[in-house]
Amino acid sequence: MSAGPLSKAWMARAERVTPGGVSSPVRAFRAVGGTPLVVRSGAGAEFEDVDGRRYTDFVCSWGPLILGHAHSEVREAISNAVARGTSFGAPCEPEIELAEWIVAAYPGLDRVRFVSSGTEATMSAIRLARGATGRDKIVKFSGCYHGHADHLLVAAGSGLATFGRPSSAGVPDAFTSETLVLPLDDEQRFIELLRREGDRIAAVIIEPVPANNGLLLQRHEFLATLRRETERAGVILIFDEVISGFRLAKGGAAGILGITPDLATFGKVIGGGLPVGAFGGRRDLMRHLAPEGAVYQAGTLSGNAVAMTAGLTTLRILERNDGWARLETTGRALEALLAPVLASAPFPARLVRLGSLFWMSLQQGEPPRTAEMIDPAAAARYGRLFHSLLADGVALAPSAYEVGFLSLAHEPAHLVGLRDALSRALARPAAHA
Ligand SMILES: *Cc1c(COP(=O)(O)O)cnc(C)c1O
Q: Which CATH architecture has domain 72-320?
């Protein structure tokens, strides 16, 4: 089954006025074929499209909706904030309270600056690292996505892997010439690079839990090596926690790993469904930021009262309800349900999961730890599964390289629904290819 008649009609209108009919490329279904659903509303773990069809949502707006759609308390807090005015271009109370919450929660973080997206957060953190060290080069890892700033659009994960491009058109070589790319999971290459060029490298940026090119869980020793070697070379280690931050634990991936970066970037969950990003770190680094220091960074709507209220309310609800432990329980239940189904699939398939993040590795052997290890044939298998699940009212991300997200709104019945839909999808002859 494909999109309903009203979704198709709306998408035809959208394509006449926006590139590909979307505001962000992966939404266009190019990787799986077919027409995207146009969504009208969401509640809890479900959404409804314009044709009135209901779906269980395992995309959760690509991460932000950790409480599910339209949580009543978040809704009420936002409405009350709106009634007092949306943005003042001046400091406001929820902004200061959210900053206090983040500083208290995240390891080694003394100061935080708010922006409006994850892209701005990573872009600004890199500028800060360069300003603080007086060095120009940065290191990123193949398969990690850090938003769409020019100098970070190199070997950058899902959206790009999906389109099979190493980089983006419109980015001059000169803009990426100071960006060095290494494979994940390879301490030796990293150590060699730092020994050779460490004194010219400002920062190393990594998703500590790479979740934009499949879920590429890293060995602790690899991440510990990054910490040890960057410290030795005076290189700033940036954890991009735009997905993992406040999703995997109150202290993010850093808290779970027991590895403290110099700077960290956030987005998605901290906005509670509204546009928010942030970056922060030790005071001695953050003091380089204007107005205290010489590294310029600014934003008209940064720290606005409505977005700050949405984020703060979301985090407080998580904290009050033991949210991270509950999400782990939900994740474990999903794993228990899906593991036997995937084990008996007609092709190699297994679930990779950490907390409320999950991904199906549809290839032989151990789950991949590097982007290079992902078998391109897995993407074709995924496309067929995706459409079968969607026809059964279960929405996964429209790309083999994207992870699934669980929220506190996902009930056992939603998980069983996914398990049953997956069993049916795997039993269909077309899925056997
Ligand atoms: C989503 C994401 C970004 C970019 O955030 P936007 O809000 O989409 O700009 C950066 N880094 C990581 C790890 C992400 O997952």
A: 3-Layer(aba) Sandwich (3.40)
Which DSSP symbol is given to 349? -
Q: pLDDT digits over 162-203, tens only?
A: 443 446 888 888 888 899 999 999 999 999 999 999 999 999
Task: Take residue 224 and report the two structure tokens written for it.
Answer: 């510990």
Catalytic residues: 145, 240, 268
Q: For residues 410 and 43, is the Cβ–Cβ distance under 8 A?
A: no
* Protein fold of 5-70+322-432: Aspartate Aminotransferase, domain 1 (3.90.1150)
C-alpha to C-alpha distance for 140 and 142, rounded to whole angstroms: 7
356 within 8 A of 330, measured Cβ to Cβ? yes
CB 239 within 8 A of CB 208: yes
Strand partners of residue 236:
203
Q: Taking the domains of the chain in order of start, what are their residue ranges?
A: 5-70+322-432, 72-320
Check pocket membership of 145 for ligand 1, CB cut-off 6 A: yes
Distance (Å) from CA 347 to ligand 1 centroid: 32
Ligand 1 atom closest to residue 120's alpha carbon, by position in its atom list: 9
Q: Ligand 1: distance of its center to the CA of 367 in Å?
A: 23
Say if CB 223 and CB 88 are below 8 A apart: no
Question: Would the CA dihedral through 30, 32, 37, 43 be positive or negative?
Answer: negative
Report pLDDT digits (tens) over 9-24: 999 999 999 999 999 9
Closest C-alpha to ligand 1, atom 14: 242
pLDDT digits (tens, 9 = 90+) for 52-76: 999 999 999 999 999 999 999 999 9
- At 237, is the secondary structure helix, strand, or coil? strand
8 Å CB contact between 237 and 212? no
- Gap between the Cα atoms of 134 and 311, Å rounded: 34
Residues 378/400, Cβ–Cβ less than 8 Å: yes
**Ramachandran region, residue 318 (left: φ > 0; alpha: ψ -120 to 50; beta: rest):** alpha
Neighbouring CB atoms inside 10 A of 333's CB total 15
pLDDT at 80 over 90: yes
Q: Let me know if the fold of 5-70+322-432 is the same as that of 72-320.
A: no
Token pair, residue 47, equals 């959404």
The pTM assigned to this predicted structure is 0.96
| Ligand 1 lined by 146 (C-beta under 6 Å) | yes
Structure tokens at 259: 């590895």
Q: Does residue 241 have its Cβ closer than 6 Å to ligand 1?
A: no
Question: Which residue's structure tokens are 């409320």?
Answer: 356
